[in-house]
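> run fold General substrate transporter
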Amino acid sequence: MAILVGRPLNWAITATAGSGFLLFGYDQGVMSGLLTGIAFTSTFPEIDTTNGGGGSSSLQGTVVAIYEIGCFFGAIFCFLFGERLGRRKCIMIGCVILSIGAALQAASYGIPQMIVGRIVAGLGNGMNTSTIPVWHCELMKANDRGRGLCIELAITIFGVMLSYWIDYGMSYVSNEAQFRFPLALQILFAIVTFLGVLVLPESPRWLIAHDRHEEAKHILWAVERDASTLDPNDEILKHEISTIQQTVTEERAAAAGSSFKSMFKNGQQKFLYRTLLGVGAQFMQQLSGINLITYYAPVIFQQSVGISRDLSLLLAGFNGIAYFLSSLIPIWIIERAGRRKLMLFAAAGQAGCMAVLAGTVAEGSKTAGIVAIVMLFLFNFFFAVGLLAIPWLLPAEYAPLAIRTRAASLATASNWIFTFLVVEITPISINSIGWRTYVYFGVFNAFFLPLIFFFYPETRGMSLENIDKLFAGGKVQLHWKDSWGDAGDVRRSSIAGEGKESGTQVIEVVN
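> ok
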């Protein structure tokens, strides 16, 4: 913290946050290529669903999905205790717990130990995914925040891609290292994340909320791009701290002393509405059907499209590469196009892909199978552009500081419980109703379009403190008003000029 300032510090923060989410992505994808491996199925024959295996698809779904239950409770832990511990401690504790879970999985010789290992690893990952986006957002400047989170989530997809290729490479190993090495590798990424957070600063907004103003002032100076040429006692920094403190005071008054109870009330600052927007974004991400593909890509290629295991693993690897490359696109356009447009683009594209996927899998010919594979690749493209990073960004952006830790944790908990639902039912659904599985995911994506259009405000380029103005009063503004001043500068923006602009979308919220 004392050595790095300015751009190097910002890149170190983004890299460390990215390392934590690389671990998240790796965890998401690593089991998909292990489930049909010879060493894995001989060690765990109870969940061998390959041809003639006789294993239970229901138990297989549970073993894979129980990880999400651990993640859910990790997020709930942060909901209850995260604000007290702080951002850095939550992440470091999460890394330690995840490493223990990874070690248990890698050493498993039976289903019970594998289940325990996945739950424990999930607890750690739930803590990390609840806290890392908030920590990252609170250390970023307004015009860099969206781009920074997109980089973080692109690294997540690099983790997914890495897991696919490691699974593919290890599929040629005939002994138990075939699955034990990929599972143990999680520990390396956890160690890197732990060490990174250990030497990087705490969130200045958390420090101010806990009356540690001098530390916060130093960190706000250090993360300025031109920190090396900026006086730490500059009046601009003092004013920024006082503005954040004023916002904290106003939010505490609105919370009436209880960040828990206030989350479920719609007072002057619409805490409930803002919490539900974050929860809804994560809900949409999971019910889009992305983890149907992430967790079970090789299984889908084999069972729905009908190609060999080796080719399925190879295609899953190339799908991971395409997914990663697609995830780079929003890094360059999120601060130009904004959150709303990208989410609408993704939902529309995903609905179309699921509809075509259902039709081609139902038809069943070789040509239709090729089209189905293309749809799987194309679905990942739409998702990566619009629904990969933004649902992780919005809970931290929409929620005011007074409830940010709890609101982000609740949103993350919703992500994991719906991930569990999708991962649990997917193998059963594919075995039972086949192509119809893709129909209901297509319907979900179509439903997201009006939900995003009518309820989700645009936060592009806005400081975290200025986002409060969108929710102040009786109406929620879906766009920033030019008459309020500079959306990204807490020093120059003003709530003066409350007059309505022509074309500004608003919605009524019942208090």
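Residues 269 and 472 are 5 Å apart (CA to CA).
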